[in-house]
């Protein structure tokens, strides 16, 4: 009678061993599919662009130009007015009067040129100020982008490390469970066989 019970125990242990073996193969296939998907997702995550998004910005204010049309127009109007005055006065004044008038008009022309130059200088100063402000804004954005880039890179590395640790822990658990199931099956077979011979 003990041989019958032992035989049933051995048969049960063998069935358990082959069942555990089948479960192990299914778990290995599932693990391989999960590992392939994880590798794909890790590669996609690793390829995320974490570079400084503000690097290489262009200073749109450094190429500003000045409007010289106003200065040219003022200068042309002044020259025309002086020429008209000279024509009108040529007949009325004598030679010495014309010379004095010419001197006065030359001084007036110099003042008009100085005003034009001052207008151009103001525009240039305003353009330089805008260019400097834009350069400062770009530098600030680049520094902000560098901090952002480093934070994203740090987060990416931390996440990849956590994923790799999770993979390793899962693989170890599966390996331990498969080994335990196989040893349990072998122990059941041996225990059943010993009870048959011992009883």
Q: What number of domains?
A: 1
Strand content: under 5%
Mean pLDDT: 75
- Provide the structure class: mainly alpha
Uncertain regions spanning at least 5 consecutive residues: none
Features:
199 residues; mainly alpha; 3 helices
Give your account of this protein's structure.
The protein has helices spanning 2-46, 69-92, 95-198. By secondary structure, it is mostly helical. It has one domain (2-198). It is rod-shaped. The chain starts with a helix and ends with a helix. The model has no long low-confidence stretch (mean pLDDT 75).
List the helices and strands and how they pair.
Layout: H1 2-46, H2 69-92, H3 95-198
What would you say about this model in short?
The chain has 3 helices and no strands. The chain is mainly α and 199 residues long.
